[in-house]
Amino acid sequence: MDVFTMVAIIVVVSCTAGVANNYFKSRAKVAGKQDPAMQRDIDDLRNRVEVLEQIVTDEKYDLAKEINRLDGREERTGAS
To answer: What is the DSSP string of 24-73?
Structure first.
């Protein structure tokens, strides 16, 4: 292998590595950006889950009673 071929291979490898590096950096930047509307939706869903967790873990909350009240069973069983 002569000197010219080695220099050409080194230049090609260096350029290819630079292009690949820029490509991966730009992909990482795009992946890091999120749509503001989507981020608001995610934040809203997190807040709703927090509220549901508080409701379910609250000691004073009787889930069966609340379901019956919403279903109308309380009126039927209470009238008997």
So the answer is: HHHHHHHHH---HHHHHHHHHHHHHHHHHHHHHH-TT--HHHHHHHHHTH
Tokens read off for 76: 């039927």
What would the pLDDT profile of 14-37 be if each residue is shown by its tens digit?
A: 999 999 998 988 887 776 676 788
Residue with tokens 């279903």: 71
Q: Kindly list the distances between the CA atom of residue 16 and the CA atoms of 6, 19, 36, 45, in Å, as whole numbers in the listed order.
A: 15, 5, 35, 44
- What is the Cβ-side half-sphere exposure of residue 54, based on CA atoms within 13 angstroms? 6
Q: Model-level pTM?
A: 0.39
With vertex at residue 54, the alpha carbon angle to CA 51 and CA 60, rounded to the nearest 5 degrees, is 130
